[in-house]
Amino acid sequence: MESIYEQKPWLKHYPEWAPENLDCDSKTAIGDFRESATLKPDRPAVFYFDHEISYQQMDLFSDELAAAFADMNIRKGDRIVVDLQNVPQFPVAVYAAWKLGAIVVPLNPMYKEKELAYFLKDSGAALFLTHDEIANSLDLSFLKETAVKAVIVTSPLDFLPEGADLPKLLQRPRKIAVPETLDLMEFIKPFKGKTANSPEIRPEDIAYLTYTSGTTGLPKGAMNTHGNIAFNSRAYQCMQRLDANDVVLGVAPLFHVTGEIAHLGIAALAGIPLILYYRFDPGETLRLIEKWHATVTVAAITVYIALLNHADIHKRDLSSFVKAYSGGAPVSEAIVSQFEEVTGLYLYNVYGMTECNSPSHLVPWGKRAPVDPESGALSVGVPVPGCVMKIMDLEKGTRELPPGEVGEIVDSGPIVIPGYWEKPEETAHAIRDGWLYTGDVGKMDEDGWFYLVDRKKDMIVASGYKVWPRDVEDVLYQHPAVKEAAVVGEADPYRGETVKAFVALKEGLADSVTADELINFCKARMAAYKYPRKVEFVAEIPKTLTGKFLRKDLRGK
Ligand code: AMP
Fold first, then answer.
1. How far, rounded to the nearest angstrom, does the alpha carbon of residue 174 sit from its chain's CA centroid?
2. 504: pLDDT strictly greater than 90
3. pLDDT at 214
4. CA of 441 to the centre of ligand 1 (A)
């Protein structure tokens, strides 16, 4: 008999416009961009702060850069590192690389020499594109150990019109000359109006190597293919009901899978504008939503928390922003309610990971995520079309669990990457018979909604009971003074492990609550084995640039 998961009980929650499967055969990420550039040349592709770049301009710039890359002997399959903030040069470099069939390795601009050396060596990259200020601050001698042929630098001001007022986020000298590097604008000058010969790009060709954060072992380069991106962009397009009137707010970093698919991928597919503004800043985000009538985004919940805590949230007109999705980290029902009270906007949950090219589950636009009556967790949504997701036992991962039982979430379908770059063992461990073992613990209810409990490795065992940090954090968020909460296990002579919470309080409420009061608040709302025995106040919870709390940095503190 077909398993419950193969029967897809979630289909009944699909809106009437969403099909069970997506027609995506032979589609590629570069093909989607080329189609929009051909069909909508005059439409804006990027709004960079207050300025506009059309699809035609984006196509021309990337043609010229592709010609310059080709002149440096870049061929299909070569790797190019793009170590940039959210600037127009990012998509220009991506499309230029893809036009040659080269693979983009997006990196976090915060990385220093040691980290960069690892990624450059592991990917075997031939070119390193970064900001002038980054190259200027690094000792570039580590490049000798790598296969990098040239460093190309670009200023975040390069794509602002001559004489334009400098945005607040970019108060800096126009250009920094960095010895032994090539300046991007000079690099493309000889190739004005030129274009390179493009090889055939197939869906199975690799588009990005996106390095996973590597909480266990060394970071691994997930091979996101052109077909993966084309598919997942269509999954968003369908479930968010994107059309020609949508405008994407590019608030997640483009170097993360969220930026790759939920920003660049969907904009290129739908031929709609993407708002870029260097890096996240709450005031600038609110201003640009209002200015360009942004309609859609995927951002970390910490972004929405920062917006809620910014005075301008009450002043700006956010009425266009009706497809605000939160992904990448747990979303508590309390925050969703607060955001809706203040802005009138409902925050949609979306769940996914680098290895499944951003969305695997999401709340279809216009629906509301149910809340699990047992744990109070907000559902992460339903699987995207054309895929089957299951819950498997936590011990071996070989036994399918019935609805309502908690186990590991495993995903299958065109969303799953073919593997990690040159890491066959890690690939075989993560992807078994086509099923991606996510390392996330969760369940599906009888109705087909999925809930995330936590990361498998973050489980706390207190007096023999399993405690999931998420459950405790969700209760802490119900307290009106709590801004951020992260819960970890701490070694304990009696309980084996005990539960400790790190809490950041809202501005102006720093002295309004004591640790004991918070402990009692939790005690009154959860089972005795779960409530935190210790609460430590911190100014801010350490987090990754993509908004994930770094629980590992808090353990042992
Ligand atoms: P990354 O590969 O950096 O995108 O990280 C993926 C991980 O982020 C997932 O495996 C989850 O643990 C977590 N995550 C993503 N989306 C959500 C969500 N909506 N709720 C809770 N955790 C999430």
1. 30
2. yes
3. 56
4. 11
